[in-house]
Amino acid sequence: MALAAASVANYCDHVEHNEAVDLAWVTDCARTLRGVACEVAAAEGVDLRILYSERLRAIEARNPISSPDSLDGGKAAEAATTWRALQLAQAAHDRFYHFDVVGLSKGDQLRHYALHVAKLAGAYAELATGELDVDDFRARRLPDTLLFGLKLATVTGKRLPEAALAGEEPVSGLHLQAA
């Protein structure tokens, strides 16, 4: 997680200094985040898609523009059976609830996401040292790992594949492959 966070920060820093960059620094981080989320969920025996759906709903519920008629990103995530559908669910959630960030330049969006990924790396370190409650980690930080793995792919123009989230039976878990 620390290496992934550093990779995005390094990309942002190089861009600001007009130095050579490699988009793979960000797209590889996105793939790493998705993979880590899937691996941790599999090891914990939890359904990452459900955790992710619940996280989107919690974020949406506390947003001041939320109403019973608002977009339900959690529902879209629960219905997703492919990586592409999950990416589109996240993008719809972002357009509706995070228009302030989506409206930023790509560079500003990347810097914003770099801060979130750094916070995630810190959360993993806190978990490893026993400073973070496991239930809090499962409810917020694990789904956020997937969430930013999706966002970073989208902001860099990476279209995730139509591959099933969980191989032959995509209705539960995301642990069989991380596109």
Quick structural gist:
The protein is mainly α. Helices cover 68% and strands 0% of the residues.
Could you explain the architecture of this structure?
The chain is mostly helical and 179 residues long. Residues 167-179 have low confidence and may be disordered. It is built from 8 helices and no strands.
Keywords:
disordered C terminus, single chain, mainly alpha
SS-derived structural category: mainly alpha
Number of domains in the coordinates? Answer: 1
Q: Rg to the nearest angstrom?
A: 16 Å
**Total DSSP helices:** 8
Mean pLDDT: 91
Order of helices and strands: HHHHHHHH
**DSSP strand count:** 0
Largest sheet descriptor: none
* 3D shape: globular
Specify the helix fraction band. 55-70%
Per DSSP, what share of the residues sits in E-state strands of 2 or more residues? under 5%
Q: How far is it from the N-terminal to the C-terminal residue, by CA?
A: 17 Å
Low-confidence stretches: 167-179
What is the topology?
Blueprint: H1 2-16, H2 24-44, H3 48-61, H4 73-79, H5 83-97, H6 99-102, H7 106-128, H8 134-155
